[in-house]
Amino acid sequence: MGIAGLWSNWKVEDKPALFTCCLITTTANDVVRPFHDRMPAILAPADYAAWLEAGTAPKAAHALLRPYPAERMEAVEANPLVNSPKNEGPHLLDPAA
């Protein structure tokens, strides 16, 4: 999946460059709304090029920042092991017991 975001390269005098980024959020869809009022702006694959193209008009880029279709998502309870950065591996994708 692609999530809309922005990045910048900050350069101040003789200091090393600082690269920063952020994810863009939008209004939550029906799947996410029970948990939070915002969600990442998930882009459809057909919209990737328009989002990444520097020549895309600002209004056209803004129109891509809409809630992802709820019918294309599902909510599952996360495995509690994801709560610790000590845990790694594909078993973290297993649903909660």
From TrEMBL:
- Keyword Magnesium recorded: no
Which Gene3D superfamilies does the entry mention? SOS response associated peptidase-like
Its signal peptide is none
Citing just one GO molecular function, the answer is:
single-stranded DNA binding
- SUPFAM superfamilies named in the record: BB1717-like
Pfam families (alphabetical):
SRAP
What superkingdom does the record give?
Bacteria
**Enzyme Commission (EC) number:** 3.4.-.-
Give GO BP annotations, semicolon-separated: protein-DNA covalent cross-linking repair; proteolysis
Alphabetically ordered keywords of this record: Covalent protein-DNA linkage, DNA damage, DNA-binding, Hydrolase, Lyase, Protease
Give the coiled coil ranges. Answer: none
Q: Does the keyword DNA-binding apply?
A: yes
Q: Which family does it belong to?
A: Belongs to the SOS response-associated peptidase family.
Name of the protein in question: Abasic site processing protein
